[in-house]
Design goal:
Number of helices: 1
Strand content: 35-45%
Distance between the termini: 38 Å
CATH class of the domain at 36-66 and 313-389: Mainly Beta
Helix content: under 10%
Radius of gyration: 20 Å
CATH topology of the domain at 36-66 and 313-389: Thrombin, subunit H
CATH architecture of the domain at 36-66 and 313-389: Beta Barrel
Oligomer: single chain
Number of strands: 34
Largest sheet: 4 strands, antiparallel
Strand order of the largest sheet: 2-34-33-32
Length: about 400
């Protein structure tokens, strides 16, 4: 899960499911110190779950949990991609194929679907945009590093953050570079990476050095930059404070989380801290009118009052199961795990109300569309589950 920049194509993959990064020696010596999950308690479900259909949309993803590859549902079409470069569009009703495209390179992030395009980051340090209606390749643009952060399509542009800390604007029409800003990055970083988000006329971007930057969408000019997370410890690994969860902006407040750092709320105007909690998070968070929901690196699920940081509840029953980023569905929270279970939690209590087994590891976040949940499993299956019907 770590990425050592001078070993560009090899990388260093460690600690994604280890109980502590101080156990790296065991990992490098070939010892498996991954925690073993406890058996799940027998659950009497009051919420019906139905598997509507399951179709093959790609190949096994090899448990690459740090990749931000999740289905996208738009106008009754579900778009998928896999780490081997298979990209598809399917009808949501039966899962029937609309179009399919095999890319020359593997996919690291996406799909992002907006306007008339489908954007993906590849393992060849490039961005590919397909035609949304037929899957034809519109253009492919080489960038300065691999794109682990999901591209953002907006205002006829594709905004991209690369692993080396460069943010670019590419023309949606032809992929021409409109501007580039080089923020830079530490030598050792996580491969998980937060994506740029819109904030009015600016992009808000979190970086692997714990800094947050506001960038003018049109010019690429940096309007301001603030240190939000600060490294601690003596080793490079102990000092990792990557902002890997996408920033969440609500009015004049931004919610951030970092690996080995903290989760918290800050004032956008001056960067003043409203509250912080020492939690290590590298997956995207979810928020509703009152709470912030997250999964920490030990697979504990949290609900925190977003106004003051008070802990509403914590669920530790899924620890060591490789829980995905949480997704909201009405009064429920939806997560998947590496053992192939899809779990439905009560947002008020954190209790698991229902679960269904999909037989293969769930590495990417589920996607909610009404009372339908679309789930990609590691064996290349796309599943649609109806909740509560």
């Amino acid at each position: 899960m770590f990425y050592l920049k001078k070993w560009r194509k090899v990388g260093v993959f460690i600690c994604i499911s280890l109980s502590a990064c101080t156990q790296i020696d065991d990992y490098l010596l070939g010892k498996d110190n991954t925690p073993v999950p406890k058996p799940l308690a027998i659950l009497k479900s009051n919420i019906p779950l139905k598997l509507d259909w399951s179709v093959s949309v790609g190949h096994k993803t090899k448990g690459l949990t740090y990749l931000k590859i999740s289905p996208v549902v738009l106008n009754n079409i579900v778009y998928t991609s896999d780490s081997n470069g298979q990209v598809e569009a399917r009808d949501t009703r039966q899962g029937s194929l609309i179009w399919s495209r095999k890319l020359k390179h593997g996919v690291l992030s996406g799909p992002s679907v907006a306007e008339d395009g489908v954007a993906l980051g590849t393992d060849a340090s490039s961005v590919v945009v397909l035609n949304k209606s037929n899957g034809n390749i519109r253009w492919q643009s080489k960038v300065s590093g691999d794109v682990f952060a999901q591209p953002l399509i907006m205002n006829h542009s594709v905004f991209v953050k690369t692993v080396d800390g460069t943010v670019l604007s590419l023309a949606m029409k032809n992929g021409d570079k409109q501007w580039a800003l080089d923020h830079g990055s530490p030598q050792l970083i996580l491969q998980a990476s937060s994506s740029p988000v819109q904030m009015g006329s600016q992009l808000l971007v979190g970086f692997s050095d714990g800094q947050l930057e506001a960038i003018d969408q049109k010019t690429g000019h940096s309007d301001w930059q603030r240190g939000m997370m600060y490294p601690r410890g003596s080793s490079d690994i102990e000092r990792l404070v990557d902002i890997d969860a996408d920033p969440i902006v609500h009015q004049d407040t931004v919610y951030l989380a970092s690996y080995q750092g903290s989760v918290g709320a800050w004032m956008l105007a001056d960067g003043q801290s409203i509250w912080t909690k020492p939690v290590s998070v590298y997956k995207n968070m979810a928020t509703d009118a009152t709470n912030l929901y997250m999964v920490d690196r030990h697979d504990t699920i949290w609900a925190i009052d977003r106004s003051n940081g008070m802990i509403k509840w914590k669920n530790i029953t899924l620890k060591a199961r490789g829980v995905t980023a949480p997704v909201l569905m009405d009064a429920w929270l939806v997560v998947g795990d590496h053992t192939g279970n899809l779990h439905i939690l009560d947002v008020q209590t954190g209790n698991v109300l229902a679960r269904i087994s999909l037989r293969a590891a769930i590495d990417s976040s589920p996607v909610v569309d009404g009372h339908k949940v679309y789930v990609m499993t590691a064996d290349g299956q796309l599943n649609r589950v109806t909740v509560g019907a």
